[in-house]
Design a protein that fits this description.
The chain has about 425 residues and is of the alpha+beta class. The chain contains 11 helices and 21 strands. The protein folds into 2 domains: about 210 residues, FAD/NAD(P)-binding domain (3-Layer(bba) Sandwich); about 90 residues, D-Amino Acid Oxidase, Chain A, domain 2. It binds flavin-adenine dinucleotide.
């Protein structure tokens, strides 16, 4: 078993949206950074697909938006839902004060590939795939790096700062002993692909009926679908059989009667458990947690990727300059938490309100739901639709790129 030892200024654990963005921004600012990702590629399905205006604004500020938009994606300016057979318009993104006034639906692997390709052009950036962090290295009470597994080998990386971006089941967070408080989620999500007969076949984003709640994301020649079920309810769904499940989907959206035949067995349906939680303290000396590692988000509003990106931008704004010169003081890690915990808490609060007020009763009842008054008001008065668009598209505290780009000649370290 080969042992490798490396030193770096910042070691980012996890190559999801938070980790890739932070790695890119720190390297762009002249900080030596190594990102470790346990998978061999980014080609994992069933992850968030929604890139919001706040994220695209950051890409615009970085000069990357044009290249990003060349990747396969669909743009949505208005979002609506079908509730018991009637269409309601809910959010209108076309008035937001940003460069790109829409949501871009892009499979997450394209987004992460894009960030990785851009980051690899920077001399301070290293990405190690198939490298799974298993433990932390300590100097007394200070976290001084990570221990990782790569194939049969072991890798020790000593770093002035470790950033946990390893998601909702974070190893880094557990090994650091950071306390997590579960906020509760009454639902899980079943995720599946439903093919289209033609690419132009359209549809609405959300369908809500007596048989449940179905979200359909247009991915060109198929829909990526999310079906919301009661927490731990997948076994009960399976007991009823795949035919009964298909019938249920068709009762919610009769237009997909032919398309759902592609779901042959429950092997075509994946369970994604929903968690809403957050750590009390996002840091310890030598370690910071951001993204889902600090606050796992519910899929409501499709905001998780975007919050993770905003955390990364804020962390880079606060830490890049000091990290270029040496270790970041603990006070700066606290500054990152102070800046980002409020938007995370506010967003989770709203998600929990919507979960308890609408989704929980919907999952418990088998009667056709009526549109809530708020949804009716949004449908009747179009200017009101700018409010949910603002909350979803921009978040509670939109971040801007403030860390300076430092150009290092290729091959030369800062
Ligand atoms: C059902 C469901 C649907 C969702 N839909 C959406 C949506 O449409 N839009 C949206 O914005 N958000 C959505 N979310 C939320 C979103 O997926 C997350 O909030 C977002 O991905 C968080 O990004 P992250 O970078 O913090 O963590 P992750 O995306 O979880 O990335 C963590 C990375 O760390 C890697 N990793 C884990 N452990 C280790 C280790 N020990 N060593 C090395 N690498 C490791 C993982 O492989 C992964 O690549 C959804 C969530 C759920 C549950």
């Amino acid at each position: 078993m080969a042992n490798e030892k490396l030193n770096t200024r910042c070691c980012v654990v996890g190559g999801g949206p938070a980790g890739m963005m932070l790695g890119y921004l720190l390297a762009r600012a002249g900080v030596d950074v190594i990102v470790l990702e346990k998978h061999a590629d980014f080609l994992r399905d069933f992850r968030g697909d929604t890139i919001h205006p706040s994220t695209m604004q950051c890409l615009y500020e970085l000069g990357l938006l044009e290249a990003f938009l060349k990747r396969p994606h669909q743009e949505v300016r208005e979002v609506g839902a079908d509730i018991s057979g009637k269409r309601y318009e809910i959010a209108d993104f076309s008035h937001l004060p940003v460069h790109k006034r829409c949501i871009a639906f892009m499979p997450q692997w394209h987004f992460l590939d894009f960030l990785a390709e851009e980051a690899r052009t920077l001399p301070n950036f290293k990405l190690r795939m198939e490298t799974e962090v298993t433990d932390l290295l300590w100097d007394g009470h200070r976290i001084a790096g990570v221990r990782a597994r790569h194939g049969d080998g072991r890798l020790d990386i000593r770093a002035d700062l470790v950033v946990g971006c390893d998601g909702r089941h974070s190893t880094v967070r557990a090994k650091a002993g950071l306390q997590v408080s579960d906020q509760g989620a009454p639902m899980d999500v079943l995720w599946m692909r439903i093919p289209k007969a033609t690419e132009t076949e359209g549809g609405t984003l959300g369908y809500i009926g007596a048989d449940g709640f179905l979200v359909m994301l247009d991915r060109g020649d198929y829909w990526q679908c999310a079906f919301v079920i009661a927490k731990d309810g997948f076994d009960a769904v399976k007991e009823q059989g795949i035919e009964s499940f298909r019938d249920r989907l068709v009762r919610i959206n009769p237009a997909i009667a032919e398309n759902v035949k592609a779901l042959v067995s429950f092997d075509d349906v994946k369970l994604l458990t929903v968690t809403v939680d957050r750590v009390q303290r996002w840091y310890r000396p030598g370690l910071l947690c951001i993204g889902d590692c600090a606050h796992a988000m519910s899929p409501i509003g499709g905001v998780g990727i975007n919050l993770a990106i905003q955390d990364a931008v804020a962390a880079a704004n606060i830490l890049a300059e000091p990290l270029r010169d040496g270790p970041a003081a603990v006070g700066l890690l606290d500054d990152v938490q102070q800046r980002r915990q409020w938007p995370a808490k506010m967003t989770q609060g709203l998600q929990i309100f919507l979960q308890n007020k609408f989704i929980k009763p919907l999952l418990a009842s088998r009667t056709a739901p009526k549109a809530p008054l708020a949804v009716k008001l949004l449908n009747w008065f179009p200017p009101l639709r700018r409010i949910p668009a603002r909350i979803i598209g921009m978040g509670f505290r939109p971040e801007h790129i403030r860390c300076r780009e430092v150009l290092t000649p290729p091959g030369k370290k800062s």
